[in-house]
Amino acid sequence: MSRSVGQKRRVILGLSLLILVLVLDQISKNWILYSYHLPERGSVQILPFLNFTMVWNHAVTFGMFGGLGAKGPWVFCIISLLAVLVLIWVIARTPRTLIAASAGAIAGGAIGNVIDRLRYGAVVDFLHAHAFGWSWYVFNVADSGIVCGVAVWMIDSLLAERQARHETTR
To answer: Per the UniProt record, which residue ranges are transmembrane (predicted)?
Structure first.
């Protein structure tokens, strides 16, 4: 079965975003640990609203499921890698360009955090956004890829649903 040119482009886009997020994530973490030496510095203000703050995250998003102990990293790795397989399947099958791009960004972020868990036993988080008394959790480039990917996927899905409803009412 041959793939359409459009489908091949979507696969290339999705896999390119996977690689881009993964590479940027790993380069930034390597730099923050071994060139900038953030673990020795703790927290450093970069901009009035952004700090580099070293956090070894043994849990998942927002610290959830942190009580799993030594088996936690392995559980998170297995679940993440299963999710990556599903996301790659989505990239290969979806007719929607933004879904392929989103799946790639999410998968790249998931793989980046899996690498940390296998390498360090925890995820390297270092970006801390804050302003006007508001403070966000410390995160990394992989997390940004995941969050942006999920947001774009949701927006695309809502717009597609809205368009489908509009077309059926014509």
So the answer is: 72-91, 98-115, 135-155
